[in-house]
């Protein structure tokens, strides 16, 4: 099937689902480079694709599924595991608190940037914490692997053509790309993915423990 005469709106969904050939994929990326406005349209398709698995109806699991699986693998069935018991720590500490005087700021490879991580969820692949930047800080261009949320506490943050200040909430969609900076310095609360892509959009793994 030839895609030479197809418009971006026809190719974008296939691009998001990774169903295009290498040449077709490069063609879409070239259109994005020539017309940055198309990035918003592509982000909408990526958001829709992310929701596809959650739109499928829930199918009840067959009662003998485990036995059939073990039989196919020619394995002996495992004994039923006991129900998990509440963690002792969870009983004593039903919630986590961090006092302002106990916030542990960690310097980052980016000059003028410090973060304080409050929570890391390895299942959801996300981290939650505080981000603090000195005046004039420019953050590297990066692409979001999942939804990112920011709540501004102090200072200013420039994202694209918009300047955000204390009390502003910023939500970036999966696939969105930006490289924000601050004029007078800032601090904000964030929740973001551990798998955001930086620079040449290679995997962020191994690029340091900073995330934004």
Molecular structure report:
With 212 residues, this protein is of the alpha+beta class. Helix content is 25%, strand content 25%. It has five helices and ten strands, in the order αααααββββββββββ. The chain has helices at residues 8-16, 22-34, 38-55, 65-72, 88-92; strands at 106-107, 113-121, 126-133, 142-143, 148-159, 162-165, 169-172, 177-178, 186-193, 197-198. The strands form two sheets. Strands 1, 2, 3, 5, 6, 7 and 9 form a seven-stranded antiparallel sheet that branches. Helix 1 crosses helix 2 (22-34) and helix 1 (8-16) packs across helix 3. The chain starts with 7 loop residues before the first helix and ends in a 14-residue tail after the last strand.
Compile the SSE list and pairings.
Blueprint: H1 8-16, H2 22-34, H3 38-55, H4 65-72, H5 88-92, E1 106-107, E2 113-121, E3 126-133, E4 142-143, E5 148-159, E6 162-165, E7 169-172, E8 177-178, E9 186-193, E10 197-198
Antiparallel strand pairs: 1-2, 2-3, 3-9, 4-8, 4-10, 5-6, 5-7, 5-9
Helix pairs in contact: 1-2, 1-3
């Amino acid at each position: 099937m030839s895609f030479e005469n197809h418009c971006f709106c026809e190719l974008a969904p296939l691009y998001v689902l990774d169903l295009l050939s290498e040449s077709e994929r490069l063609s879409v990326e070239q259109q994005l480079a020539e017309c940055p406005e198309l990035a918003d349209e592509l982000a909408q398709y990526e958001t829709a694709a992310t929701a596809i698995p959650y739109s499928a109806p829930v199918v009840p699991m067959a009662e003998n599924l485990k036995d059939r699986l073990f039989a196919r693998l020619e394995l002996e069935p495992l004994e039923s595991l006991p129900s998990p018991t509440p963690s002792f720590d969870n009983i004593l500490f039903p919630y986590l608190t961090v006092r302002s005087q106990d916030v542990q700021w960690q310097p980052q490879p980016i000059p003028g940037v410090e973060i304080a991580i409050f929570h890391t969820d390895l299942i959801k692949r996300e981290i939650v914490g505080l981000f603090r930047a000195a005046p004039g800080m420019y953050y590297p261009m990066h692409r979001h692997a999942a939804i990112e949320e920011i709540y501004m506490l102090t200072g200013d943050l420039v994202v694209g053509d918009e300047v955000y200040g204390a009390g502003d909430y910023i939500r970036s969609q999966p696939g969105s790309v930006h490289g924000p900076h601050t004029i007078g310095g800032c601090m904000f609360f964030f929740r973001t993915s551990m798998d955001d892509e930086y620079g040449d959009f290679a995997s962020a793994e191994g690029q340091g423990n900073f995330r934004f």
